[in-house]
TrEMBL record:
Pfam families: AAA_lid_14, HTH_8, Response_reg, Sigma54_activat. One of its GO terms (biological process) is phosphorelay signal transduction system. SMART domains: AAA, REC. This is Sigma-54-dependent Fis family transcriptional regulator. It comes from Pseudoalteromonas phenolica. The modification 4-aspartylphosphate is found at residue 56. CDD domains: AAA, REC. The lineage of its organism: Bacteria, Pseudomonadati, Pseudomonadota, Gammaproteobacteria, Alteromonadales. Keywords: ATP-binding, DNA-binding, Nucleotide-binding, Phosphoprotein, Transcription, Transcription regulation.
Amino acid sequence: MPAAKQHILIVEDRADVRLSLRFLLNNHGYEVFEAEGPAVASELLHTHRIDLILLDMNFEFDTTSGEEGLAFLRTQQKTSSPPILAMTAWSSVSLAVEAMQLGAKDFFAKPWDNHAVVMMVKKYLALAQIDHQKAISQQHEPAPLGKSDTSLDNNTKSILWHSPRMQKLKAQLERVAKTDATIFLRGENGTGKSCIAEYVHAHSERTGEFVSVNMGAIPESLFESELFGHKKGAFTDAKQDRAGRFELANNGTLFLDEVATMGANQQAKLLRVLESKQFERVGDTLTQQASCRIIAASNADFEAMLESGEFRTDLYFRLNTIELTIPPLRARSEDILVLAEHFIELHARQYQLPPLPLSKLAKNALLDYAWPGNVRELSHMMARAVLMAEGDCIEEQDLEFKVLNNSSKNASLRGDIPLMTLEDAEKKLLKMALAQTQNNVEQAGELLGISKSAIYRRLEKFGMSTK
């Protein structure tokens, strides 16, 4: 089946300009909608799926202020608007800046270069697709029945074991993979728990499928049907027999992600199957054997959940024969650049672009960042960088870092800092963090939201010592 065409909306008062852009974009396989002003554009956005907007900034013959386009951008700021590329015959730096401050992704002037416009359109459609996939992955949607969860970069090849902590984890995984022991993986979001579960399955002697299920994404009313399957007619929407996850993972591995999100009833139903190693499809009397290896995962504070009774102790111990913790990316800085280069290669192939090297400044920026989203965030960042880079390497400005809110950590560091150079401000904050932590480099890094190695680089840069 051919891929669905992407839809582009041209908002432009001049019919000849709309026609030129329509021909250009149609020739590159896009479906084009036209609006001669913001009112028609708003209506089309409500009635059609629009993937990208080309927005003229002036809709009146005798004005060059761009106010009409800016007003439309302000309106779109309040909605989940598709990416907008601004255009005007009266191009100016100030108008471009204002348009982009209001949400426009990029800016080009009329008359335009056809190739440049098409490349810009391709870039921002691809970036929008990445953002869409990222949003879906953050909603923790379950993988389809019978499919393994490959959201974190397709397979176990993305696990690159370079840091001492990951080398140690690898040795542990390979020891337990040959057994049938239940494994409990703990780690922050994005650390690669699903990939590591797949790694265990790939190195085990089980011949069945690796089947993944996100426990937090299953409504309580469908819990038994999803895990154990159902017979045709068992309930209103049961149009045919359906195998559940336990059945599909027969002689394989069943990965239960986000197990901490289960309610009390769901916990009891899962515990019964783990204890008896038997289950029945909903609406069926035939008892089946649960012959699969269980790997569970969570990023929750289980000690607190067990103490409060929110999670059953007996189920926890059933799931936790062997507990392994996956370190966050900021705690294994040796892996950051290796993973970054791997993701650049991966996404460059995906978008049919050359794999560009990272500049020295870009590498330092990656090493200095705290990575709250871990490996998943690094993958998404490299995907954007592959598309955004315009030179012969990926520069620091091609990287999109989150603005971290460390208010709970560094509240005592805050204060009125007089105007000074960025270097002086950085040096002052470093001194304050070290003073507050009695020169503990690791704790100072946590306060400032950067890695331990980044602290040492700054100490060397400023000629400072912790002694």
